[in-house]
Amino acid sequence: MCRYALGLKLVLLAYSYGIISCRKIERFARENLVAMWLTQEQRPTYRAITRFIVSEELKEMIQSSFKEFHSYLKAQGMIDEASFIDGTKILANANKYSSVWKKRTIKYSELNVEKARQLIHEIKQAEVKINVNEEKFDIDQLDTVIALLEQRIEELNQRVSETAKVSPNPAKQERRHAKKYLHALDHCRQKHLEYQAQAQIAGQRNSYSKTDHDATFMRLKEDPMRNGQTKPAYNLQIMTNSQYVLGYSLMQNHTDTRTLIPFLHQLDPKRRFGSRDCR
Fold first, then answer.
1. Does 24 reside within a domain?
2. Are residues 201 and 140 in the same domain?
3. Which branch of life, at top level (predicted)?
């Protein structure tokens, strides 16, 4: 617990100085006198700092700190029973031009499926001899079709070497078509995997950032261009009482309509608020 406390002090101090890079925090711990005093002149590596920031221990420390702080304020009579919850959107440390929209992903995925089916139809018309059922083709069968094309190309290579003096050589023509469709289908397969990964990352959200998968594109209050441009951000929910912060949560929802109940359940896992209070 002692090393976790020292790590938390170092990270909070570095963040207060605007230092968020783990490598820069490592250097900060070596060169800054206050940081050296807080960490008792220990020199954690950037890997150790990274593991600490994403660890479950840090999350439990923060949650327990808020619980102890709440209990102390209540015992001292510094807060009452009325608490207030409000939210604000904070800009994520991500590229604002790195958006991935779920609707666009679904649209492009459907177009990719149609393109793959069209390629299968063209393969049949080009008389490339592979055993593929065009009517029952599914996008998940691309690996099988590509394997059949690769096998057919190997057979054609053998035939071309055996009939090198034949001109025009029909085996060469078929091999040329097979290679063209092999590259096209492989591109469709890569796009299919890419769209699957994008949909999985997005989950129930409508968008995310390529450089910060947890950030969702939202409209912020700060809009210098005045064009309603969406930016990668988080929805920060805070509960206060008598100007004391008693809890917080970073949400991925772009509105506050669906954040109240999850936030209350996070503050009170035993759900002592009751269903009537959560409405």
1. yes
2. yes
3. Bacteria
Contact residues for 229 (Cβ-Cβ < 8 A; gap 6+):
96, 219, 223
- Find tokens 């002090």 and name the residue: 9
Classify strands 84-91 and 230-241 as parallel, antiparallel or unpaired: antiparallel
Secondary structure (DSSP) of 84-111: EEEEEEEE-SS-TT-EEEHHHHHHHHHH
Angle between the N-to-C axes of helices 2-16 and 22-31, in degrees from 0 to 180, rounded to the nearest 10: 100
- Residue 178 lies in domain: 100-209
Q: Which long-range contacts (CB under 8 A, 24 or more apart) does 188-194 make?
A: 188/112, 188/115, 188/116, 188/119, 188/142, 189/142, 189/143, 189/146, 191/108, 191/112, 192/109, 192/112, 192/113, 192/116, 192/139, 192/142
pTM of the prediction?
Answer: 0.74
Classify residue 59: in a domain, yes or no. Answer: no
Same domain membership, residue 203 and residue 154: yes
In order along its 279 residues, the chain shows pLDDT tens digits of 457 888 888 999 999 999 989 999 999 999 999 999 988 888 889 999 999 998 888 888 888 888 899 899 999 999 988 889 988 999 998 888 889 999 999 999 999 999 998 988 888 777 667 776 666 777 778 888 888 888 888 888 888 888 877 778 888 888 888 889 899 999 999 999 999 999 999 999 999 999 999 999 998 887 666 667 889 999 999 999 999 999 999 999 888 888 888 888 888 765 555 444 444
Do 148 and 195 lie in one domain? The reply is yes
If asked whether residues 201 and 233 sit together in one domain, one would say no
